[in-house]
Specification:
This is Alpha/beta hydrolase. The chain is of the alpha/beta class and about 325 residues long. Helices cover about 30% and strands about 20% of the residues. Strands 2-3-5-4-1-7-6-8-9-10-11-14 form a 12-stranded mixed β-sheet, sandwiched between helices. The chain has a two-stranded antiparallel sheet with strand order 12-13.
């Protein structure tokens, strides 16, 4: 499994030049939540077995996938360790996609940022630490976007350019990482503008404020990077009230996008859609109702099925700014 991360490495092979960053073993300390200033492009061969392959080899591997295979970049939420949380969910997500659309429909590629996973009594401390890590990770993730954009421009000049479709699924606080990366990238590399890179951006249970897409707000640039931006939310997502309370420390008491949807859908760009998932979120993630994008037994989450439909046809259905997904277990 390919992945990229700005976690701080603990061990690097001394037999490989530190400049090449190719084919060397690399490890990460789960308790070190200090974000690195750069992204490490890697391949996971098994649990805890990681090899750094470098950015160019990473992009080349994505280009060489089967024709028409799409990419689904997965940015995880807070309180997740690489093993078993991030990679475990990425593998489950890949299996469900293969089941629903076939093995060559899309490749899941985790993008990891440094967060902690301590005992429940330290929930608030973990939340604040992870929130800081998410904020500081924006710079490293924006550098990854800049590298990809430069590679894409170079590819466009070749005889066989890469035209692969790229999508993003950001979950929970992973949406904060995504928001910060796009904002940093646009502000520092594109004079306040950003290019269209993605086919779909899926923001599920997003732990960001619900007015973030409005002009001048923190995620105002994000809709410009994608054809479709879909917000999945649930009013009974129990992680969202906890997030709201936790943010009181930062003197921020605002409603979360993952609980209410967009504050005013008429004030945001027309390519933003919101999907109410309150009918089924707790059935697929009991009791919190927060990670409802995978499966319950043999049933695939309606949220994931909705995403796959948008990836397949390039359009969000139904073509309505706001709609509700229902689920009937039979």
């Amino acid at each position: 499994m390919l992945f990229a991360t700005n976690r701080t490495p603990t061990k690097k092979s001394s037999t490989i030049s530190p400049i090449s960053k190719v084919d060397r073993k690399i490890q990460f300390d789960n308790q070190n939540t200090k974000p690195a200033n750069e992204m490490y492009f890697c391949k996971r061969k098994g649990p805890g077995d990681y090899t750094e392959i470098g950015g160019r080899n990473f992009f080349k591997a994505l280009k060489e996938l089967e024709d028409n295979t799409q990419i689904l970049l997965y940015i995880h939420g807070f309180n997740n360790n690489p093993e078993p949380d991030v990679f475990g969910r990425a593998e489950d997500l890949q299996k469900l996609i293969n089941k629903e659309r076939g093995e060559n429909f899309a490749l899941v590629v985790p993008l990891m940022w440094p967060c902690d996973d301590d005992r429940a009594s330290r929930f608030l401390d973990d939340y604040w630490d992870d929130q800081k890590a998410a904020d500081f990770s924006g710079a490293a993730f924006s550098r990854m976007l800049a590298k990809f954009d430069a590679w894409r421009i170079e590819e466009a000049k070749s005889e066989n350019p890469c035209t692969r479709r790229i999508n993003i699924l950001a979950h929970s606080m992973g949406n904060r990482v995504l928001r910060n990366a796009i904002s940093y990238w646009g502000r520092n590399d594109h004079y306040g503008m950003v290019p269209l890179l993605f086919r779909n951006v899926f923001m599920l249970a997003a732990d960001v404020v619900n007015h973030c897409f409005e002009p001048g707000r923190s995620a105002a640039l994000l809709p410009s990077t994608t054809r479709n931006l879909v917000v999945y939310y649930a009013g009974d997502d129990l992680a969202m009230p906890a997030s709201k309370v936790a943010n009181v420390k930062n003197r921020t008491l605002s409603r979360r996008l993952g609980m209410t949807g967009v504050e005013d859908i008429n004030k945001v760009p027309k390519n933003i859609y919101e999907v109410d998932c309150a009918d089924f979120n707790n059935r697929f993630d009991s009791p919190k109702g927060h990670s409802y994008f995978l499966n319950k037994g043999d049933f695939t989450s309606p949220a994931l099925l909705h995403m796959l439909s948008a990836m397949d046809g390039g359009r969000v259905t139904p073509n309505e700014k706001h709609h509700v997904i229902t689920f009937i277990e039979s």
